Amino acid sequence: MTSPATRPKTFTVKSFGCQMNVYDGERMAELLGAEGMRAAGAGEDADLVVLNTCHIREKAAEKAYSDIGRLKRDDGTRPMIALAGCVAQAEGAEAQARSKMIDLVVGPQAYHRLPELLADAAAGRRPVDTDMPAISKFGALPARRKSGPSAFLTVQEGCDKFCTYCVVPYTRGAEVSRPFGDIVDEARALADGGAVEITLLGQNVNAWSDGARGLDALIREIAKIGGVERIRYTTSHPMDMSDALIAAHGEIDRLMPYLHLPVQSGSDPILKAMNRSHDVESYVRLIERFRAVRPDIAISGDFIVGFPGETEADFEATLAIVDEVRYAAAYSFKYSPRPGTPAAMMEGQIAGEVMDERLQRLQARLAEHSLAFNRACIGRDTQILIDRKGRQLGQMVGKSPWLQSVHVTSDAKIGEMIDVTLTSAGPNSLGGSLRTVEAA
C-alpha cells in the first residue's frame, strides 16, 4: 500500500462521541485552515483524514479502527491518517502497532501541535504526542472566526471524580478551567462570526471557576454579549452544582430552561460502587431546587444499565427515579468495561442478554416521559432557532428553548429566530405554526 510522503493540502476531520470532541474537531479544522490547508469537499478524497475519537464505550473505539480500514482506496493508495482524541490518548503508540495505516497519534490536550506532527509524518516518521499540558493548547490555536448559528465553547476540561467505570480522568487529565477573559473573548468572536446560541462545554462544566467566580458569573458575562440570544451548558456533575448557578436559571433570560444532569443509576448501592458522590435523595432534591426557580425546565440525564453487581431490585430503583424525575430526554447505555478502570475488575459482571433486556425496558420508560413532556408543550408560544431544512418541501427545523426539534413551514433562513406556537408532539420532535408578534 502506498504511504503518504508529502505534506497534505486538503483535510477532513471526523469526530466521534461527545460534544467536546465536536468542539475539538472544529478547532483542529481551524488550525489546519490557518496552515493553508483546505477542507475537502463532499465526495472529494482528502489528503489528510483526522479521526477524532471517543473512548468512553468500546463500540466507539472499535468504530474508529473500522473507519481506518475503510480509508484504503481502490487503487491501493490512502490519505495520511491522524488518530486524535481519547482513543489516541489511551492507546498511544499501541494504536500504531494495531494499525500500520496510522501515520500520527495526537491526544486531546496536544492537538495544537498538529502542524509539527504533520511535518514529521510527511518526512516518514510516525510521531506520537499524548502529553497533557494544562490547557496550553488554547493559546496556540487560531482565533475563532466564522461559526454557525449554534456554537460550542469549551470552558473546562478533565475530571477529578474518578467514577469507577470512566476513562475520562486518564484520557483528559485533571480538572482545569480556562481563564475567564479568554472564554469571554472567544464567545465574542463566536457572536461576531454569527453564533446566536453558545453551549459551554466541560467534562464537569459546572466545576469551572476562576478565582471566586463560578460558572454562573461566566454565564452572566456572556449574556451581555450582543448577538448571543441563547446560552446552554453541559455536562454537569451533581457534586459541583452551586446555589448561584441554580439561581441563575431563574434570573437570566438567555440561559435556556434545559439541564443535563447525569444520575447513572437510581440505586444507592450502585451509585456508591460507581463512586458517584451523590445518592438518590440528594439528586432528586437538586432537581426540585431547579424546578422551584424555573418550573418549565427540561431535565435530561444519563443512565448506565448492567453495572457490575446490579440486581433486578437495583434496576427497578432506576425505573423509579425515572418516574420521579420525569426526564424530558435522556441517554442510556449498557455498561461497557474499559481497560484500566476499577469497574472492569469488579465481581458480578452482568450477562449481555440481561443488560439488553434491562436497556429495552429503561428506554421504553424514558420514551414515555419524553413524549409526555413534549405533549405538555403543545399550545406554548415560543421561539425556535432554525438550524436545518426539513424533509418536506418548504419545511424548516429549529430548536426550542427546551432543545426539542420543531418542524415548521416557513421561508426562514438557517440562523434565524422565529416565533411559533407548538401545535403537535411526537416522541422525538414537535410541530409548530408561525406566530405573528405585534410590536408593542
Molecular structure report:
There is one protein chain. With 440 residues, this protein is of the alpha/beta class. The protein has three domains: 10-129, Rossmann fold, CATH 3.40.50.12160; 137-376, Alpha-Beta Horseshoe (pyruvate-formate lyase- activating enzyme), CATH 3.80.30; 381-434, OB fold (Dihydrolipoamide Acetyltransferase, E2P) (Beta Barrel). It is built from 14 helices and 21 strands. It has helices at residues 19-34, 58-70, 85-91, 93-98, 114-122, 136-140, 168-171, 180-192, 215-222, 243-251, 268-274, 280-293, 312-325, 352-376, and strands at residues 10-15, 38-39, 48-53, 80-84, 104-106, 128-129, 150-154, 156-157, 176-177, 197-201, 209-210, 213-214, 230-234, 258-260, 298-305, 329-334, 381-389, 395-399, 405-409, 417-425, 429-434. It has a six-stranded parallel sheet with strand order 2-1-3-4-5-6, with helices on both faces. Strands 17-18-19-21-20 form a five-stranded mixed β-barrel. Helix 13 (312-325) runs parallel beside helix 14. The protein is globular and about 60 Å long. It starts with 9 loop residues before the first strand and ends in a 6-residue tail after the last strand.
